[in-house]
What does this fold into?
Amino acid sequence: MRPAAFLTILVLLQASRPSSAQESLSGQLRTVGIEQRLNTQIPLDLLFHDESGQAVRLGAYFGSGPVILVLAYYRCPMLCTQVLNGLVDAIGPLTVEPGEHFQVVVVSFDARERPELAAAKKAAYLGRYGRPYTGGGWHFLTGPEDSITRLTSAVGFRYTYDPDKDQYAHASGIMILTPQGRLSRYFYGISFPSNDVRLSLVEASAGKIGSPVDQIVLLCYHFDPRTGKYTFAIMSLVRLGGILTLLILGGFVARSWWNDWRRKRQLPPTRE
It folds into this structure.
């Protein structure tokens, strides 16, 4: 029994030890993630191809309004699709739309992918969004390795390729950029609250889109970069309340002064 028991222990110990392949994958995954680089200017001179195969500069999509940037690869079996689904679900309820108020730019980080794949993805997500007339505001790009590397490095998007599965390990999220191409906000995960995305677009546009109510809401909320969400800011509300109180008191004093002045004018002149 002793040799058999000893052999069993050796087998269990070997099974419990991670293989070199597992250790290698674990090491690679530690390099995957999204590092926030707020207010960083991305390189707008990068060359890509749009979904029609036309050569374009990244800067062509900036200048008129904020930009939602998504880094994904079109053959991704699951995660990238979930990110794009989450984006459509987030902007679907909004009154602002791609093309008129902001741009959606999706860039593949797989240099092997071609415009045909990008065109198919664009058609699929325009169909899911349900507003085909906004097609001019959706852009699905492919490009060479150097352009991809420069863009992903600028925004802090780290990924790694697994040759055994022919897939990329990567994090999930979207980024909001100003019309000038500066990183304004990051949202992590595959589900993005519509209200937060709306506020981030208003903020990135410097108030050029959205309603006056949105500006008031932004005073009451602040963005937490750790969670990628807007949270209620009590001090902002206190300041806003103080301003409103001063305005009300000022209006009351002005009205009282006006009434007194009118009353004095209506009094008959005194006779000596």
In short: Residues 173 and 189 are 5 Å apart (CA to CA). The helical segments are 2-16, 20-29, 79-91, 115-129, 145-155, 194-204, 212-220, 234-266. The longest helix spans residues 234-266. The chain has two domains: 31-205, 211-260.
